[in-house]
Write a structure and sequence with these properties.
The structure holds two protein chains of two kinds. By secondary structure, chain A is mainly α. Chain A contains 13 helices and no strands. The chains are: A mainly alpha, B alpha+beta. The interface between A and B is medium-sized, with 25 and 31 residues.
Chain lengths: ~300, ~375
Amino acid sequence: MIKAFTTRRPEMTPFLLLAPAMIIMLFVVAVPLVFSLWTSMTPYQLTKPQTIHSFIGFRNYARLLTDSAFWIPFGRTVLFLTIALNVEFALGLGIALLINKITWGQRGLRTIMMFPMMFSPILVGFQFKFIFNDNIGILNNALQSLGLTDQAIPWLVDGKLAMFSIIFAEVWMSTSVFAILLLAGLFAMPRDPLEAARVDGCNAFQVFRHITLPFLMPFAYIAMTIRSLDVARAYDIVKVMTGGGPAGRTELLWTLIARTGYENSKMGMANAMAFVSTILSILFTYYFYRKLLAARRFMGGVQ
Amino acid sequence: MAEITLEKVVKKYGAVGVVHGIDLAIAHQEFVVLVGPSGCGKSTTLRMIAGLEDITGGLVKIGGTVVNDLPPRKRNISMVFQNYALYPHMDVRANLGFGLKIAGQSPAEITKRVSEAAEILGLTPLLDRTPAELSGGQRQRVAMGRAIVRNPDAFLFDEPLSNLDAKLRGQMRAEIKKLHQTVKTTVVYVTHDQVEAMTLADRIVVMRDGHIEQVGTPMEVFNHPLTTFVATFIGSPPMNLLPATITGGAVQLSDGSTVPVPDRLRGFVTEGMKVQLGIRPDDISPIGHGLSQDGPGAELRLTVALAEPLGMESLIYTHIAGQEVQAKLYGPRIVQPGETLDFRLALDRAHLFDAATGRSVRAA
């Protein structure tokens, strides 16, 4: 039957071949997306299913715009992302530069470096929850045994320290993304410009600052694009370590959205928040991608 | 004043020696070319002068100062690399001015010197381009410009033309020569191309296996090669070498035929000495088609094995005493394989090398 159809209408063949992919895309991506967009324009509550039918236009969005309970976690997420990415970049660069210098055992180190990435973020969260626990955590235990402090430090209970602890866990888990990409960059780096710079009068730091670092930036931007998408939707570590507390001091976008949607069952509002949040991811991706393109333009002709 | 002196310079990688104690004195403003086949240690020697390789033993002096332990930036030299080694993320202007910027020169001074260098090398229209937007020859010119703006004591060139195509290589060779006449500076130039060595050098240093074989002006090295290695390396096509014995005051080839000992070498040979007769293709020619018709010579009847016409001259492959030799025929005459011709060997320009040591009998 299909053969008869394609013989009669040969111009339809491409559409026919694409149809299975199209149908899957429709049900897996398009339908849920349209559905969630629709619910974001209703006062949909999980406990009152009939609310899904009352269309309220952009009222959810309008309320969000002036709601500091949304914008404070939004800003905190941006801050979280900025700090985590910068620290990861700095540490990853340091690790990559050190490993690049090693001539013996480099492969083994490269593998070991990847270990934190292999753990489930939830388990990393639990691990650090116990390390930072103010009563039984090994960190306080160690600090007190060494006599560095005589009272328990409330790592996960104090608002600022809790944020620091979460960032620490995030950085521990993902610094190797930067390290591995920057190391790849160092391997690809031509030696001649480095030598030319040394002859041109640069000391070791100037060679790094003016030649190595600009060469590595495209690799750093790739890592930043990947990681900004990752961190902007951070949920598991925060959920496990602090649950957004104390008193909402570590609430990030996605813990807020999950709380609104599932705990307060205001799914319509949660979906509206989610759509606004994707703007953040899109902006960061766009920014880093632009940087990447600009940096790659001149890398076209290294030789 | 920037003379460069090497005293017993040694380079080893672990137990492997690459340069075995070379001595060389390069005068102020002299253009010296280090030439030799791959792996002869010429680039390593240059990189030791630049400070990019540690010196295992001996002394390197620039302008009278021992620089063994100085980093490259304190040697006031500049270097042009085979792969140009431009900074890919800077435009031509920034590439040229980078060394001056690092040295802390004022922006006005940088601009002035960059535009001077750009003018000399014809780079002015290209100043705002990045290296990716330049052709090979233009990149090479930028690399040279970067070397000259800093006004160094010496230029070091590491096979700068080997990545260019043949035509461009010829042009750039001439430009380097002109550049040296404009910017009088000591130059050390490394190449494996004997034509570059001959055309550019004030003095040629022929290297082989980490040793210096011969140092001399291009004409000295060409006309009076000290060893069979130099004789066959300098000059194209290479010099023919025929095993022979000094018998009865003549050079007896392996098939028993003899040619007279060249007059200028008569005092240097002894009866029964094993030698190699060296004679360039230009000095073996069919009678009437050679470079010189007078002076001492020997005549031989030879059969042409192969002829390669090159226009005004032809390269002829033939055999003397059973060994293949190359000969030249001047003039537009077509020769067929199998043809038998009377050749004349211009013996006044022939060489004799001691068969045991490979050194010229004049030096032995």
